[in-house]
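Re: beginner question about structure tokens

> Can someone show what the tokenized structure looks like for a real chain? I only ever see the sequence side.

Sure, here's an example I had lying around. Input first:
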Amino acid sequence: MGRIRLVGMAGKVPALPESFAPSPDSVFSDQFGFFSLDSNVPGLSKVILDNLNMKDFSEYRAALEGRGKVGFRSHKEMFQKMEETFKFCACCSKLPRNLPDPSLLRLCAKCLNVYYCSKECQKKDWSLHKKFCKKLRVVAIDRLVDWLLHTGDLPFPTETWTHPAKAVRCWDDWLSMQGDLTARMELILSGKNMTDLWTNACRPRPEEVELRESVWRVCSEFLSRPLTLGLGIQMFLLDPYSRPLTIHLVGAGHNETLGARTTDLDELSRMFPGHQGLEVVMVGPEVVKGPIMRPPLRAFGPRGRVYISAYKGLYHEFWEELVEKGEAARPDLVVGFHPGFHASQGLGEGWLPTLLLLRDYCIPSVFTMYNDGELKYSVQILMELEMDIKGTGPNPFSSQKPEQVQSSPNKEPSYCNAFYLNFQGLLEDKLEEED
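And the corresponding structure tokens:
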């Protein structure tokens, strides 16, 4: 049938429209170009590097990859330095150093998130800022509470599933199995790390109801990943009870692997209790060293357990070096969180070989997107590659934690894994033409 057409045989891919050029407003500003931050706020990238005590971007990248360290004398200094990277006028984009008096830069008293260099700028920007002020207050709280993931306080412990996976269709269904969360929440809210957080953050501790809601939102982002993997298993009718399954997580970066623990995806075992074994291999050029940086399995892992491994490099390199040689299992499912097709400068050096490989080997694949616009662009790209798109839509297990674009805060927040699209192989009419 001529179905397996590898990269060199794929033929010419239609040029992508100019709308796919990188945008400084992209939530992928770090992944696709650290200095794109400067497009909105000139000099912001240097402010970030200075506050991390780094000379250049290579030191920043080395720290993310575990080849360097970010040293702070105290947690208070860490939070102060982090907050300084958000200090610029949301109206005119001036940094403190570009003002005659840096102390003129003041926080919005309502959201405690954005700054203004003068009353004139604040008044000028209010018609826009008032649309997002309440949401940005939520973002500001979540940004700090997120630190509790690194202390181990979050996520809160979860319960055994009392319903089959197919009956759990959304967060409300999942929460209904968790019982009363009060005790688990109180343990976090009254804990030493939560107290230290607000002591060191140098801002008033929010009301308990705000913190309780923030803890849930931060947990939802963490849990969104394993639940989305489980959703992909169900979309393609894979049966984890009849045989072990291998999932490749493509395009994994420091978001998934920085500080990752080997237990991070254990919710999958609660989703499919008694499964035959699940392996998730995180593959990407920005994979960060840590406990999960261990070789993929040749044989299947232990029954009822989720085994996480990682490979630092591009997916087609991983395929050629390990999968084709039998050093790693072929995937039953491939998942990509926020591949960012619409923000990359072209698919050729990054995603194109991977997409063609997934298509030509007819591998069940699921990708997630931050928003409807990204979903639309991604669908267009995959259609140009003649992919057989099976479905698209809102992800029922989207993160509930809003994300702002650091250098352009007065925009509608985005949410991790908000939308999905799934595809497998070539369109049928294209297969018929080849036959």
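Each token stands for a local structural state, so reading them left to right follows the chain. Residues 22-143 form one domain.
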